[in-house]
Structure to design on (99 residues):
């Protein structure tokens, strides 16, 4: 793969996210090993991985609906609580007639 051709899902990631992905791959996917490298607990690394997965999934949501992607991004970045995000998305879908 050429450096000029960066997958869309990677374009929105921060440098620290890319560094995390690299450590994760070099650790053969061992969250326990990655936790040791960062000097944090396994649940902390698991939470970071879950948030990274959500960021990557949001790239697809942006293409489908920018409003929903924005609400999810706010929730992932803890600018908006999860329950409020769910309510906003649900009401938005009702308003625009989406399921």
């Amino acid at each position: 793969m050429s450096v000029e051709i960066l997958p869309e899902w990677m374009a929105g990631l921060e440098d620290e996210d890319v560094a995390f992905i690299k450590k994760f791959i070099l650790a053969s996917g061992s969250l326990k090993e990655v936790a040791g490298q960062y000097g944090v607990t396994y649940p902390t690394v698991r939470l970071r991985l879950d948030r990274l997965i959500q960021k990557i999934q949001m790239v697809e949501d942006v293409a489908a609906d920018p409003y929903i992607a924005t609400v999810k991004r706010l929730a992932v970045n803890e600018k908006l609580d999860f329950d409020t995000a769910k309510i906003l998305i649900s009401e938005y879908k009702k308003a625009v007639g989406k399921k």
The chain has two domains: 12-56, 65-99.
